[in-house]
Every structure is written in structure tokens, then in C-alpha cells.
Amino acid sequence: MSSTSTTAAFDTRVSAYLQRLERSMDAILPPASTDPQRLHEALRYACEGGKHLRALMVYAAGETLGVDAERLDAAACAVELIHAYSLVHDDLPGMDNDDLRRGRPTVHKAYDEATAILVGDALQTSAFEVLAISAALDDAQKVQMIRALALAAGSLGMVGGQAVDMASENLTLTLAQLESLHARKTGALILVTCQLAAIAANASETVRNTLEHYGRCIGLAFQIQDDVLDQIADTATLGKTAGKDLAQHKSTFPSLLGLEQAQQRAHALFDEARNAARSISGHADALLWLADHIQQRDH
């Protein structure tokens, strides 16, 4: 399937992209019957459900740059594997200690803590495997993608953000500190979706910079939106425990800015992202659709 056609709205192709992702994930994860069976059952359990917004960002950015979907599959799968691993570990008692994820028991509740730790470990390594074995990418692209994803997921990115988040409980952060925290914890993995698509496209530095600006805006807006939803939505809607931020005495954008100003800040960032998308040479309908889709989410 070529993703260069922009004659129809992106949402008409979302189901096809999600099917591609499902096939890629099914191919990279060992069957549930593989020994050790309990571990592989839990691996697949951890990857079920979810909105797959990060994978859709890879496809949307790639489509905007005229990249065939075959060259985006590995990157879309890799970011979802890293995201799934991060959720499994974040939910552990030593981290956020949550019992509910995607509307059902977290992995350590459905199985046990040791299995959940191993599931996260295996998902993380699988993310780099799927990039390394892709037949649709050349060696230089594989190396660039592996490095970009490693930086986004490591101590300077997502993992570092989680460490700062845990250390910040019961503290009142400044707005700049809070934005820096979430640029790593949440934003890094959203930003890298744009970077991976740009690598697949062999995009120019100018295009990469513009696409990265889109990703940074979406990443921060997404986190502000998460903070708002944690305050105003219920557990059934969110699919995870509502009100956790307040219970853990964490600084949030609503707590620093007020609910209305936090919502306005998110709206402004979504608008800034859309402006960045429109300035990229080519068709930006996919990125524009995605910004609208994320902005309208309720969980």
C-alpha cells in the first residue's frame, strides 16, 4: 500500500494503518505458546488495546513526506513497543503503583511483578530488533533510527523524565521545570515519531526541523491534555485510575496555571503544531487530521 495518496482524508486510511501495525506487532512478538509461555502471554497482553497514537504519528508524518507505508512499519512498531514497555514499568508498585491500564488490570496485577518487569525488558529489546531486521530500510537509516529511539527512550529522554517525575512528588515545580520534565517523560517518544519518519524519507534539515517543532508542540499539548483529563474525567472514561496526580501530590499544568489557562495553553500548542504542518512542503492533511484527533480525545 502506497501512502503517498492524499486525495482522501487521513481518517479513511487509519484502519489500514492500524492493521499494518497489528501485523507487524504479531510478527515481531513470539506466539503466546512459545516457552516460557507465561512470559509470552504477558508480552502480548501488554500490547493489546490502546489508541496507538504514536504509530499513527509515524504514518502521518511519513505520509506528509511521501514515504511508502512499507518503509514506516518498523518505526511504527518500534515506538509502540517502547511505549508498551514504559506503561508496564510505570504501573509497577515501585513507580506509579497503578492497578488499571486500558480499562483492565495492569500487567503486574494480571500476572505478577516479576513477570511485568521481564515483559518490559523484552518489549524494549524487541523495539530495536524490529528496526534492525527491517528489509525496507537501508543500513544507514536503521542505525539512525536505532540511535534516535535509544536517545528518546533513555536517561536523557523518557526514562530520565520518569526519574524526575518520581523525585518531584510533594514538590511544587515551576512551569519551566514541569515543561522540561514532560518534554522527556512524554514528549521525547512523541517527538521521535517525527524523527523516524524524517529518517525514512531522507528529509532535508529544514523539513526535519519543522517536523520536530510539530512533534514538540503535540507532545507538550498531549501532556497538558492528560493533566486536564486526570482532573476532570472519571476512571471508566480514562481506562486508568483518575485523580492519581493529585493523590501523589504531583505538580500538574492545571495546578500551576489553573484549569482554564491549562486548556488554553494546550489549544495554542495544537494551533502552533498545525501551523508547522502547513509550512512543510507537500500535503499536510495527515498531520492536521492527527492534531485534530488528539485534541478531541477524552482519554
UniProtKB/TrEMBL annotation:
Pfam families, sorted: polyprenyl_synt
Family label: Belongs to the FPP/GGPP synthase family.
PROSITE patterns, alphabetized: POLYPRENYL_SYNTHASE_1, POLYPRENYL_SYNTHASE_2
Transmembrane segments: none
Cofactor or coenzyme needed: Mg(2+)
Keywords: Isoprene biosynthesis, Magnesium, Metal-binding, Transferase
Protein name, per record: Polyprenyl synthetase family protein
Gene3D superfamilies in the record: Farnesyl Diphosphate Synthase (1.10.600.10)
